[in-house]
Amino acid sequence: MDEGNRSATGSVTGRALRVLEAFTPTAPVLTLTDISRRTSLPLTTAHRLVGELTSWGALERDQDGGYRIGLRLWEIAALAPRGLGLRELALPHLSDLGRVTGENVQLAVREELSVVYVERLAGQKSVPVLTRVGGRFALTPTGVGRVLLAHAPPEIQEHVLSQPLVRYTERTECDPGRLRQALAEVRHTGVAVCERQVTMDSVSVAAPVYGPGSEVVAAVSVVAHVEAVQAYALVPLIQVAASGISRTLNGAPPPGRR
Amino acid sequence: MDEGNRSATGSVTGRALRVLEAFTPTAPVLTLTDISRRTSLPLTTAHRLVGELTSWGALERDQDGGYRIGLRLWEIAALAPRGLGLRELALPHLSDLGRVTGENVQLAVREELSVVYVERLAGQKSVPVLTRVGGRFALTPTGVGRVLLAHAPPEIQEHVLSQPLVRYTERTECDPGRLRQALAEVRHTGVAVCERQVTMDSVSVAAPVYGPGSEVVAAVSVVAHVEAVQAYALVPLIQVAASGISRTLNGAPPPGRR
């Protein structure tokens, strides 16, 4: 781990946070040895930190002696305004959208150079999606990601477009110039449509959610089977849901974009 | 704050965790001065810890300079098996229960001497409920709480019953003897019915969710207007949902209780 990237990682607080960071979706349960190895901390240091985190409830020990993220941490993290707070306000609108379309509905925010999914309602007979609540994904190939990137500061946009982009399918757009044009279209039309960008059978259609300062704070999308829906027929439904969520946040698009 | 209660609170890790703990549902945004006051930490110490937590993403600074819980913490906390993990597995069953009944549906676990709500779906025309995802509530007056307490270790039961209990309504049961009997009935019948215990117009009906070791890991309930439903008519629906969630967890009731 490159410690120079983050000022906190060298301090005691930073080491405790590194222990929490050792847990991932693919490794949600870790032994003390796993934690020591993943954090590059000596076993004695890891042992002391894990003890402190467990006594507070940030970690829990299971019956087999493995450690996992504790409910106490989840309780406090539930206060994150961009996490459960946003999800709580948005849920009725997302449920309506899911019921009317019968498809997958997603709510996401941008964290640095990624999409983070805040809510995901699975459509009962829709196409399978790869996302997970609390999970990250790339910005450029997803509807929510393009909406969030289109309204991100220009330096973030250029940073993302200057990186090598993952080609998920033969159709995944990886050309910076064409992506730049796609983002301009998203700003112009108020909607992003991504066909066959992540899997060959899916299309995602997304619209922005505005906060009180007319800034884009989140994006809402429907992900459906590309042959089952007319993507553009979904647009007004998604825009109604996105406007409903914006209104709940006391937000609205800037005057020029109403 | 009594520092003797928690071994971690005196250490640097403990102080960082105390900063996180300063945030509550009623105070989700705090200034540095608020944090210093709530944690009883000197302003300089609070300033350093807040800086470290913010640089890692456990806290975020808003436009007005206030601090709030950050999305990065929420992402990691989403890995808590008893939080979002459980919720993710349970959601399809909870949605079905909500759709069929049209009432409020709740999923909860026990943390020490409290109920913690892991999911809450609001019924569109149902009675208002006081709960919040990630929020705590008392064990004895709620359906989910009685299920969880009925299957808790005897020392936890006695600890709860020996404390003064909050009287939410004139009907709230606060007598330890009658509550002990109610818990025995919950174990015998496999269901808890709480009428007018939290508000005078509500009834909650709850059933246990079993884990792989036949232990009760959660409880699912419907909360409805007391005059709108026959509580006992809800029982089979709730038991079907609870069994469905148990099955998803590879869990089942002990042989005697199938």
Cα radius of gyration of chain A in angstroms: 20 Å
End-to-end gap of chain A: 46 Å
**Top CATH class of the largest domain in chain A:** Alpha Beta
Give the % helix of chain A. 40-55%
Description of the molecule:
The structure is a homodimer of 258-residue chains. Chain A has 258 residues and is of the alpha+beta class. Chain A folds into 2 domains: 75 residues, Orthogonal Bundle (Arc Repressor Mutant, subunit A); 177 residues, GAF domain (Beta-Lactamase), CATH 3.30.450.40. Helices cover 42% and strands 19% of the residues of chain A. Chain A has 9 helices and 8 strands. In chain A, strands 5-4-3-8-7-6 form a 6-stranded antiparallel sheet. In chain A, strands 1-2 form a two-stranded antiparallel sheet.
What layout of secondary structure does this protein have?
2 copies of one chain form a homodimer.
Chain A: H1 12-21, H2 32-39, H3 43-56, E1 59-61, E2 67-69, H4 71-77, H5 81-101, E3 104-111, E4 114-121, E5 136-138, H6 143-150, H7 154-162, H8 176-189, E6 192-195, E7 202-210, E8 216-225, H9 231-248
Antiparallel strand pairs in A: 1-2, 3-4, 3-8, 4-5, 6-7, 7-8
Helix pairs in contact in A: 1-2, 2-3, 5-9, 6-8
